[in-house]
Amino acid sequence: MKLTLIKTIALGSLLTCSAAAMAGGSDYKLMVIEQATAPQQLEESFNGCALNVKSKNYAEAEAICTKAIELLKVTKGRKLKVRELTSFALSNRGISRIKAKNDTAGLADLYEATQISNNTLVSHNLTLAKEDLSL
């Protein structure tokens, strides 16, 4: 069931680097890896992070996002793709931290994510977080 839900979410709107975004226009954007474009362990960690954020299991989401970030550090592949996925994972973790009221750590993740890859979705999340926190 959980894997089926993740796959359903992942088939939503496609982005470059085989990732998909979840949420409406004014909400935070959570990125997931499209089915079968990454090693299974990475795909499960990455997508599990987004699923737990959507389910409001923020502590679990943070732990799973951290695991995805660690897996990306040792992932072999095109450097540009790995950098963008790392940026997405940091953005997802940043959202989970902000939702859990750990604003400083969440903003740090979002700033780091934009430094790694200034993707429009990651930039959107940082802008929204600064607005939400009145920065």
TrEMBL record:
The keyword Signal applies. Keywords: Signal. Residues 1-23 form the signal peptide. InterPro entries: TPR-like_helical_dom_sf. This is Tetratricopeptide repeat protein. The lineage of its organism: Bacteria, Pseudomonadati, Pseudomonadota, Gammaproteobacteria, Alteromonadales.
